[in-house]
From TrEMBL:
The lineage of its organism: Bacteria, Pseudomonadati, Bacteroidota, Flavobacteriia, Flavobacteriales. It comes from Flavobacterium aquaticum. Residues 1-20 form the signal peptide. The keyword Signal applies. Keywords: Signal. This is SprB-like repeat protein.
């Protein structure tokens, strides 16, 4: 365990798997424990106090912009690892477990440890240990429980000078107060809010329950943690819920296994092994999880995540109504065959990425396993790739299929709206003499000025232009509308005066939706067409308007005064 054969040169043997640690803001989080051991029989004990579950060397691949004065070398010129630790009390201890064998091992194993407080983007050095040998320690004191501290690990000056390729490291973080998983038991399940992502861990949890999945039972339990998610009251009937477990950083390649229990499931049923899983992932995996289940409004679901064989991980967990993709496929690379006058459609072929779990689509309509899309008319197409395992979709690559080379320009249509006295009409504004214009549906023709005749009012048309054997793409659709409706001429009925009243006039074909305008101004038409406000003995005419068109004026009319008695 933790061995690297060192002859005349160092040959580093180590576990290689997904690890953070490239920079302070991508630091690998370790969780303090009371010791550096992590074995429980043939499996891991569920701790995460070292980079790798067994304490083996792991390559350092990070960089530093900081060159602390407390070391005699230049960390900006070396590979480093960044570690972050949340203090559980006022101190923790860093132990160098870096282990090589052979001549010069004692020098090659020396590591520098520099400790910082602050934020990942604004660090303040608080402790330093230079040239710490294997099993040597740095005790960091004066800490605040709950605060995050950052550790930069690098080769010592002697190790870097003598054995620069021996640039792996193994580090252990211990404390008198170990990290504790607050959601270690089903009864203490952490409540996940809908559509909220949480960074979480199963480090330092213990077994709770007989198996990860039940009915059927599968997956032994080593270090599981619990979550509860409740569907909101407005959750639509039949809506899928997505459990997204992303960005796993684990101390072994075994990864996580999980189960989701249906609504109404109790912790007692799970302990008794009589519950039923609606989702089960066993064995473990370090890939992103994107599992779906049909949720019911106001119902709650228990979720358990367990480290396969005692693996510990840090990860993001979220339940939502949509898929969360942290690692979608890359945008596709394509080759394009443009149309010609002989072959008037184009072809798109996806050349990368390729794989058995990938499907391809244009305009996100239908996905297919094949990479070729043929028979494409000129236009713009969005080409995407979908991973059938995660259901994640790439960003689109936009491809433009051009009109055939040498084809005449697409006809541009100007349509004039109808008026109160004439129908609308259309004209090809980029008309070119000697070009054949073909209308769909057939019927219209075009004259030497581009004016189109023979269109049926209300019918939608497109038109193409052809020169020789080359035809343009179709124009945008266009339609001629009929002459606007003109209101009927108002008809006036005038009642003669009597010995007791003046004469009155009424619009007999009155329409309440129309506006009536009198000349000279003054009178108004009320309900039923009765005209008020007329001056006795004055002659009037009136027109009716629908907002677009006005009628012709009525015959002139006047009201006479009351008869003299």
């Amino acid at each position: 365990m933790k061995k690297v054969i060192l002859l005349l040169l160092f040959f580093t043997g180590f576990n290689v798997f997904s690890q953070a640690g490239s920079s302070p803001c991508d630091a690998l989080q370790l969780y303090p424990y009371t010791g550096c051991g992590n074995q429980s029989g043939p499996q891991y004990a569920g701790h995460y106090q070292t980079e790798e579950a067994s304490g083996n060397n792991v390559p350092m691949t990070g960089t530093s912009t900081i060159n602390p004065a407390c070391t005699t070398d230049n960390e900006t010129a070396q590979s480093v690892r960044w570690i972050e630790v949340v203090a559980t009390t006022t101190s923790f201890t860093i132990t160098n477990l870096t282990d090589y064998s052979g001549a010069g091992a004692a020098t090659a194993e020396q590591r520098d440890y520099v400790v910082f407080s602050g934020t990942c983007s604004s660090l303040t050095q608080i402790a330093c240990g230079a040239s710490i040998p294997i099993n040597g320690t740095l005790n960091v004191t004066g800490l605040t429980a709950g605060q995050t501290y950052y550790i930069m690990v690098s080769q010592s000056a002697a190790a870097f000078s003598g054995y620069p390729t021996a640039n792996a490291a193994a580090t252990c973080i211990t404390s008198t107060v170990p990290h504790v998983a607050s959601n270690d038991a089903c009864s203490n399940a952490f409540v996940l809010q809908n559509n909220v992502s949480y960074t979480s861990t199963n480090a330092d949890s213990t077994a709770d329950g007989p198996s990860v999945c039940q009915n059927p039972a599968s997956g032994s339990v080593e270090n599981n943690v619990w979550y509860q998610w409740c569907a909101p009251a407005n959750w639509p009937v039949g809506q899928l819920a997505y459990l997204n477990v992303n960005n796993q950083v684990c101390n072994s390649t075994q990864g996580l296994q999980l189960s989701i229990y249906g609504p109404g499931t109790t912790c007692a049923q799970i302990t008794a092994g009589t519950a039923t899983s609606v989702v089960c992932q066993n064995p473990g995996s370090t890939t992103d999880y994107n599992y779906t289940f049909t949720a019911t409004a106001n119902q709650c679901y228990l979720i358990v995540l367990d480290g396969f064989a005692g693996t510990s991980c840090t990860y993001d967990i979220q339940v939502s109504a949509s898929l969360i993709c942290d690692t979608p496929p890359v945008a596709p690379t394509v080759t394009v065959t443009q149309p010609t006058c002989a072959i008037t459609t184009g072809t798109i072929v996806v050349t990368a990425p390729l794989g058995a779990t990938l499907e391809y689509s244009i305009n996100d309509v239908v996905y297919q396993s094949g990479t070729t899309f043929s028979g494409l008319v000129p236009g713009s197409y969005n080409v995407t790739v979908r991973n059938t395992t995660t259901d994640c979709v790439s960003t689109a690559t936009v491809v433009v299929i051009n009109p055939p080379a040498g084809a005449p320009p697409v006809p541009t249509i100007n349509t004039t709206a109808p008026t109160c006295v004439a129908n609308g009409f259309s004209q090809i504004s980029n008309y070119v003499g000697g070009t054949t214009y073909t209308f769909t549906p057939a019927g219209p023709t075009v004259d030497g000025t581009g004016l189109i005749s023979g269109m049926i009012l209300g019918t939608s048309y497109t038109v193409t232009a052809t020169v020789g054997s080359c035809t343009s793409a179709a124009s945008a659709s266009f339609t001629n509308l009929a002459t606007l409706a003109v209101p009927s001429q108002p008809t006036i009925s005038t009642t003669a005066p009597t010995c007791s009243s003046d004469g009155i006039s009424t619009i007999t074909n009155y329409n309440g939706a129309l506006t009536y305008t009198f000349t000279p101004a003054g009178p108004t038409a009320g309900a039923g067409g009765l005209i008020s406000g007329m001056t006795v003995g004055t002659s009037y005419t009136v027109t009716a308007s629908n907002g677009s068109c006005s009628s012709v004026a009525s015959a002139s009319f006047s009201n006479l005064a009351m008869l003299v008695t």
